[in-house]
Amino acid sequence: MGAHSIARIATIVVSVVVYIAGITLNILSARGTGPFLMTTGNISDTYNTQITPSGWTFSIWGVIYFWLTAMLIYIVSTIFRRNAFGPMYCSHSVLPYGFFISWILNILFNISWLLLWDREVMIAALIMLALVAFTNYTMIFFSCRGLKEYGAWLNKYHNKDLWCIRILVQNGLAVYTTWTSIATLINLTIVVSYDAGMSKSGAATLSLSLLLVEVIVWFVLENSFLDKHVRYILTVYPVIIVALSGNMTKNFDASAPGTNGVFTALLLALACVLFVIKVCLVIWRHIKHPIYSDTHTQEVTAQIENASKQ
């Protein structure tokens, strides 16, 4: 009890180093220098689709990497901070090894996607981007599982850290996850239209339909079965709104709106409505039905005992 874990420190350090490498290659890909033959934007222009958003939309990557950097700074800070049982990063293990392994794989998949996209190997690029999104989901899962085990303890003794995990880790990852999920659908549209021969209109409709299903399923799950785990994740809908707004500014013709234009407009309206409902539900449940209350005293005690045994 109270000792540092060399293995955990090494895992965190590797996570930071891999992230820095990923950021560096993303910057190079945006400029079309280093190992990259073209810019990511030029490739996107070459493989244009009816759901590719305006260029300004992709500035969201700056928000994503700023948020992820803040997340990593917080995680690194836990190496130098202690609680009653020892260093915070290993005294309760809110973020397990699985989280960091998923993170490292995620950045490696991200780098692989950049290289495949640059070489215009679209099917393989689609697979890599889907894996980026998948590992994002696994990281959110591991963070939720960690809070399920130690959330009540954090709420009682380290409330600021509980909110840091909710805001920096979970909401930061949610921005990244939502955007890469949408990017995967855009990549899918490219593959089915340019490689499989589907019409551009049909390919766009397919991806918009999948997005609609994902949005509805997520809204139902987050407000029912998963409420106690993902209640404070609020950044999903703003990302969808930004992506669809970028789609509208580029592809929507108000004088003669096509099927996909109308579909996109309806999706955008739905995302806005669901976001308002989500915020209202979170506020109401936070006041009336808090996740952690006095009835969790025994749970807190059990979690402290578990932490002390690590």
TrEMBL record:
The chain crosses the membrane at residues 7-28, 56-76, 97-116, 122-142, 163-190, 202-220, 232-249, 261-284. Signal peptide: none annotated. Keywords: Membrane, Transmembrane, Transmembrane helix. It comes from the Eukaryota. The keyword Hydrolase does not apply. The keyword Endoplasmic reticulum does not apply. This is Uncharacterized protein. It comes from Pangasianodon hypophthalmus (Striped catfish).
